[in-house]
Amino acid sequence: MQRIKQSLSLAVLVALVFAAGVFVGRQPQSQPAAAQTEEDAVIFQPFWEAYALLQERYVDPLDQEALMIGALSGMVESIGDPHMEYMTPEVYSRWNENLSNQFQGIGATVDQDENTGELIIVRPLDNSPALGAGLRRDDRVRTVNGEDITGLTLTEIVNLVRGPAGTPVTLGVVRTNDAGEETVEEITIIRDIITLPALDYRMLDNNIGYIQLYDFSFEANNALTDALLELDANNLDGLVLDLRGNGGGFLDVALNVLSMFVEDGPILIEEFPNDQELVENARGGAVAPDVPLVVLVDQASASASELVAGTLRDRERAVVVGMPTFGKNVVQSVQELSNGGAVRISIARWLTPERISVQPDGLMPDVMVEYDETSDPEFDNQLEAAVRALKGLSRGQAQAPIRVPFMRF
User: Fold this and answer.
1) Fold of 102-195
2) Which runs of consecutive H residues, i.e. helices, occur in 149-235?
3) CA 180/CA 112 separation, integer angstroms
4) Any idea what the Cα angle at residue 16 is, between residues 15 and 21, rounded to 5°?
5) ∠201-203-207 over CA atoms, to 5°?
6) How far apart (Å, rounded) are the C-alpha atoms in residues 219 and 16?
7) Is 297 helix (H, G, I), strand (E, B) or coil?
8) DSSP H/E element including 43
9) How far apart are CA 335 and CA 325, in angstroms?
10) 3-state secondary structure of 229
11) Is 18:247 a contact under the CB 8 Å cutoff?
């Protein structure tokens, strides 16, 4: 799948659940709102002049709220930071609702191709309406209910797809026929109430544990601790931590996850304005500090996932297997406004302990393994590669990785 970026900036679970990469953190100290200076007043004077002219001269009645939304959105977008956005009260309300890991939709992790504008299906959720209707990984959606979506933002597409449980939505999915020609197949899906688990875990052969972490929500804290204890992680011969399709979440959760595998020392560096820097150390009480560890990543592993994978490698706790990650190293703060909307602001940049930035090219795996879509759907060649990479790792430390070209297993 080609590398994809989101025009929405990155959000957590807005209706569909998508590869989000929101990384919500904190500033080292609170800063009061800046007062408008005389210079600012001069700079913004043309704005107020134009607003007054519209009020006085425009031929039709004006929608004041639409003017306000346009001005706010344009101001945020003019900064050029693709991870920032203004959220209307409706969008912000959904954003908050979906932090509970329950929503009404089709049940798919999605992303948006910045070049074509198409919606990319990263992963249909298990037992979801999306999976039951036949959506597949890497499917490209071009229309929703017959409307071309390629010129819309991700937020606008989400608003078209989401809806009450029990109602239908029809997606136009690009498929290639036997003659190699592209066709658009319409797939109708009945929306449902989707409950997204924080993770899944199981035992593999040869005393190897497997945990797939879907996001860095608050539910992930206890769920991961319980999974590690249930798997008896300290007595495993190896553990695969699967962060494929994990678009991120909360900074605090990511630091807790890292502290489960790293006993002490630095796990994050944050760079704030005015040359302020904050180094975060492991929080103690590691649950699995010695288990040989491989982290699986792909193009949809973003933000918190990239931090966890990069830090575990820096601290020589893991080998990273899979494909280059999304490439997002900003920490964001979501600030509510007086109208009930909110602005997502990039407040810091994060680096791994070795001061590695993943933006814009992503984190490069130690072992590059392209997902084999042509193989048996029950066979996961990237997971097989992760299991192979575990062989020979000493407890508590990852071996120096051997960098190899793309592999198929």
Assistant:
1) Pdz3 Domain (2.30.42)
2) 154-161, 219-230
3) 24
4) 95
5) 140
6) 18
7) strand
8) helix 38-57
9) 28
10) helix
11) yes
Per-residue pLDDT of the chain (409 residues; tens, 9 = 90+): 333 333 222 222 222 333 334 555 544 444 445 567 889 999 999 999 999 999 999 999 999 999 999 999 999 999 999 889 999 998 888 777 666 677 889 998 888 888 899 999 988 888 899 999 999 988 999 999 999 999 988 878 888 998 999 999 999 999 888 888 999 999 999 999 988 789 999 999 999 999 999 999 888 999 999 999 999 999 999 999 999 989 898 999 999 999 999 999 999 999 999 999 999 999 999 999 999 999 999 998 999 999 999 999 999 999 999 999 999 999 999 999 999 999 999 999 999 999 999 998 999 999 999 988 665 556 789 999 999 999 866 554 454 333 333 322 2
Q: Where are the beta strands (DSSP E) in 199-356?
A: 199-204, 208-213, 238-242, 249-250, 266-272, 276-281, 293-297, 319-322, 330-336, 342-351
Domain ranges of the chain: 102-195, 199-400
- Domain 199-400 = CATH 3.90.226.10: yes
